[in-house]
Amino acid sequence: MNYVNLSVRSLLLRWRQYISLFFVCAIGAGVSLFSFFLINGMLYSLSTKAEIYYGGNYQFLGGRNNLEFYDCREFVEKLSGVFPAGTIISPRFDFDADSASFYYEGVEIRQRVIKGVDFEKEKILFSKFNYVQGSADKIAGTNGILISEKIASMLEVSTGDSITFMLRTGPGYINTVQLVVKGIFKDSSVFGTYTSYVDIDFLRKAYCSPEFYANRIGIFFPDSVPSTKDSLKYQALLEKEFNMFKLVNDKYDFYDPLLAGQFSEPIYAFIVLDANMEDLGVIIDAMKIITSLVIAALVIIIVVGISSTYKVIVMKRINEIGIYKAIGMERGSVILLLLSEAFVLLISGCACGLGFCLLLEFIVKQFNFSFIPAFDMFLTNGYIVPMNSFCGAMLIFMVIIITTITAVLFSLRAAIRITPVQALTVTE
Q: GO cellular component terms (predicted)?
C-alpha cells in the first residue's frame, strides 16, 4: 500500500482542517532555524574579530615574571615542529598604550593597545577585516597603521594622512614617530575602538626593544578550526619542548601568578581562543542559552499544537477509521496511514519553514545595527550576517519531526482501538 500517496490525497482533501497545523509547523520551524543561524553568524563574527585581535586560534606566551620573548626565533622554530605544515606562527608585540597618544592637527587621542604585527605572515587574518578605507596590503616593513573608524573620525583623518605617535620607550624616555594611515576598519567593539595595528619591526624600533623581541606568539589554522581534542594534543606536545603551565579555561589563571612573580623559572602557557575571551563568556553563554530556550519553546508549541489538534481531527474521522477496519485493514496499517499524514505535513511544514527562515534572514540583512553601542563585535561590516548550517537545520528538523510523530502516536491510541461497529455508529 502506498501510504504517502494516500496521505497526500487526504491532506489535500481536508486542507482546511490541516492548514493551521501546517502554519504552526512552518512558522515554528522557520523561527527556530532563524534563531539558530542568527546566533551562529553573530558568534562567527565575534570569533573572527577575536582571531585578528589575538593573532589566531591560539596564543603561546610566558616568561619568568612577565610576558616576554627577548629572542622569539627559537620559540617559533620549536613551535613549527609541533604544529602541522601550513600553520601560521607569528610573533606579536602588544604594546600597552596607556602612556601613548596619537596627534593630528592639535587633536590628541589616547589608545588602549598598539599591536605590532607581522603583516606578511598574517595576511590571511587581516584580509577578514571590515575596511572602510584602505587595507593591510603593503604595510609590512613600513610605518603604516590600521586604526578604527571611530578613531579616524575623532582625529578627522583618512587613508594617506600622517599622524604623530608619542610613546614612552622601554628605557623610559619619550619618543615620537610618524605613522601613515594605511587602513581604517569598521569596528567599535572591545576588540577594535582603541586598538591599532602597526608593523612589528617598526614598533620594536620606536619602543627601543631588542630586534627580535615579542611578548606573544599567535598560532592560526587558515583552513580549519581546532577542537578541544586538538588543544589537548598540542598541549601534550608542547610539554615535551617547554616548561608548560596547565591548559586553562581563563587566561588570568596563568597571568595572575606569572605577573605576581610566583615562578622561579620561565614558564609558558598555551592559551586557546575561548580562554582569551573568558571576559565575554557570560554574554556568549547567555546568547546560546536564550537561543536554546527559544528553539525548545517553539518545538514544544509545534508538538503540543499538532498532536492535540490532530487528535481532534482524527476523532472526527472515526467513521473513516471504522470503514478501514471493516474492509480488513489491520490496526498497524491504520496507525501507519495516519502517521504518514502527520509525517507529510511535518516535512512540507519544515520545508516551508526553511523558506520563511531565508526570508527573515533577507530582512535582517537590510538593517545596519552599528548604532548599538559595543554591538559591532557581533556584526560584519555593520550588519548581522546569519550563518546557515545544513547539519544544524537537519538536527532541528529531526527533533521537530520525531517528537511530534511520537506525540501524535500517543494521541491516536484511543481512536484506533475502537471496533468497526463502534466506529460506524459514531456520528461526527
A: plasma membrane
